[in-house]
Amino acid sequence: MTTLCVAGIDVSKARLDVFVLPQRISGTFNNGCEGIAALTGHLKQHNVVRVVLEATGGLEFPAARALCDAGLSVTRVQPGRVRGFRRFVGKRAKTDTIDAELIARFALAMPQDDPRQSVPSERAEAIRSLSARRRQLVDLLVQEKTRLRMTRDSFVLDSLKAVIAALNAERDRVEAALSKAIAADEGLAEKADLLRSIPGVGPVVASVLITDLPELGTLNRHQAASLAGVAPHPQRSGTSQRGDHIGGGRACVRTALYMAAVAAIRCNPSFRVFYKRLTNDGKPNKLAIIAVARKLIVLANAIVKSGHPWNPAAALD
């Protein structure tokens, strides 16, 4: 049996620590243009076919993009998955080299069809950064508006109002840039139009799905719900009969879908009937809204996959 040749890369601001299995070859490269070029040659020399990097706030993107462009299969994984694997193998020691080896062992164990954390193109990464910036500005606005409601001092009130006005203006500027970037890409513009045909999905929710769930349209219904963080996961063992709970996934996508579900319940009869059926059966309101959100993401995935917009005459399953 042929053993898959994989590499794990531990990323920091200054350097890239790599470990190749099954040859057990380690190396260190600068996290810069020359170092990434040398790393690419090193991995090709050892016939590496899969590379896994831990997501590190964007520090991993230049190396991941360069390796993808060189024809290697590259996957970014969330730190929580690597931490879980560390606990599984019982590894307590932690150095950059040990972490690189651990990620390489994780690469051998992970399924080959794992859809999570593929490496986007430079344009897609730039659009995702705009979406993330918009989300940061919205979070700052929420904080400042909360302080505004709790403040009585006139000077502080004026200061808060000035900051809120500036944040609103900057949010509008970022939203305009994001809309322009999506419209300039024919594929993304088409996907946005398809998504906006769904009840409750407006420009903001559509942009979140496009930028933070780029796999949409390539997944099955279970993968789509899981990545969006709205899939119920069973928690049962022995005689315990605990209820199913959602968890994991991408928090920003789940938040956007929740708001879209609230809007869909208000504006669309089919979703409203589905929601009422659940609440009349005794389901809590939030659970029913999450169920609608799951319907939305499954529907969005199917619509993007088929290329056909929402059909109002179609009944929900």
Q: Could you give the topology of this structure?
A:
Elements: E1 6-11, E2 15-21, E3 25-30, H1 33-45, E4 50-54, H2 61-69, E5 73-77, H3 79-89, H4 96-109, H5 122-150, H6 154-184, H7 186-196, H8 203-212, H9 221-227, H10 251-267, H11 269-280, H12 285-306
Parallel strand pairs: 1-4, 4-5
Antiparallel strand pairs: 1-2, 2-3
Helix pairs in contact: 1-2, 5-6, 5-8, 7-8, 8-10, 9-12, 10-11, 10-12, 11-12
Characterize the structure shown.
- With 317 residues, this protein is of the alpha/beta class.
- It has 3 domains: 6-109, Ribonuclease H-like superfamily/Ribonuclease H (Nucleotidyltransferase, domain 5, 2-Layer Sandwich), CATH 3.30.420; 121-184; 199-317, no CATH class.
- The model has no long low-confidence stretch (mean pLDDT 88).
- α5 (122-150) crosses α8 (203-212).
- The chain has helices spanning 33-45, 61-69, 79-89, 96-109, 122-150, 154-184, 186-196, 203-212, 221-227, 251-267, 269-280, 285-306; strands at 6-11, 15-21, 25-30, 50-54, 73-77.
- The protein has 12 helices and 5 strands.
